[in-house]
Amino acid sequence: DLRRVDIAVETAKAARAADSVVEVFEPGRIGRSLSKTTVLAPTVSTPMLVASTASPAGVALPRACFEINALLDLRFPPDVELRCFATHARMQPVDPVKLCHEASWEIDPKTGALPEKFQSFMANGNLVPIPFKQSVLHVENSVRQQAEQQRSIMTQAGGLLQILPFVGLNVPADTVYFVMTIRREQLLSDTANALRQAKQEDLKKPLKVKFANEEGVDEGGVAKEYFRLLSEQLFSPAYGMFSVDSESRYLWFNPGSFNEPEDFEMVGSVLGLAVYNNLPGLDVNLPPALFKKLKDMTTTLEDLAVVFPSHALSLQAVLNWRPPPSCSSSEADQLFQDTFCLDFSVTYEALGERRTVNLLEGEETPSPVTFQRRDEFAELFKNWYITSGISSSFDAFRRGFDRVCASPVYNCLSAGELEAVICGEKDLDFTHLRKGSMVINSIVTFGEGYIEEFWGIVLAFSMVQKRQFLKFVTGSDLAPVGGLERLALKIQRNGGEPTDRLPTSQTCFNLLMLPEYSDEAKLRRLLTTAIENAEGFGLQ
Question: What is the pLDDT of residues 509-528, one digit of tens each?
């Protein structure tokens, strides 16, 4: 509690420094409880914050003031929380407005118990750290997959399992898994064919990926590499579906794309499969606006500024322009038009050709933008780039995504949380990777100081080498939500001198199998060789 108050006070200081309207005072009470009339007495004599009554301005406190980090620190079981969310809250989050105003949310005065619907952390989404939400989502996905497997087995067996469960029954792999056999040289076409032929119930089974003519058995590692390689091709501007803004480096739907809607639906299904199968984030730079649209949130000019900074700066100049005070309305319009020379249109490229779209429906020729209509132009311009200009592509993308991802826990995720789940974390702090790692004991253990030498080499890697190392050991070069510590890297001794054997890994289990070499120079050389030449499964 003291830490949360400290965060709030620091936030208030920053707000005051930025001239935000915030008052700091020491009241005798710090707010209401679940009861409208009862208030909570302060446990410490620390200044508390309220927005000034003189202005609607206030201060936004960071999530750290509210999140219950003990859910992570004490490893509260996510399967227990999923049951609480289902049985108590009926998979419905608490509405904060109703919580503050409706008597049904009062604490029972006799027992002191919370209302049953309140007895779930997930029901109170703002209190739950994103990594814990993701853990609950993982459990829910696994439960749904197991249910689909059982249903599929019962259908395949024709009810015989009720009489003789699993006795002499040979169940094909595609009965209990969604199996994709992919040729590396035909990655896109094989994926498209597999998704096109898949039924809705197939996508609800656990995914298993098999690379043709390779020995790898998918326990998670093969799928990680598959999604990494696929995303490199799917989201490449050369493929034509997405373009990259040169300033923001964000990917966005290409309004001039000639790809069919089915292609965008495939991309949505691929992202949905990665989330549904609890795989780490994809290394694609998707902007917050995409996740706001997936969560049916309204986009703003700020979203345009994130994806297209130059367009936003130009629009801001248009909106900020003011005529001289002595100008009449007509003179202001004329001066505005002479200054900016704008009409209600946008121009984009399609296969090297420049095309123009009228932003005003029903008009053959775009009307000029006047001073009085500049706000209308800015909104239509933003809407075309973020919504209407890419509507067919996004609608198909969303169809594919919703085909796989649709569940009560998924519905509880905010746009920002969904972005974190899909894209992972960008910060690759290897001190956190080391903190969460463990050495698996074997009959012969590492010599004294060897693991310290190993970490000295890894921590000194360049950013490119760090990504290569992560890809080599885990199958993905991204950090999971919550940071690299959550990867729980395992290191196991795999023989010793004399040897020229390279380090190997089991990406399904985040396990590095490390030989014990005679000196640090040899360890650095062979480890670097391994991570820089790692792709594929099995030996040729």
Answer: 889 999 999 999 999 999 99
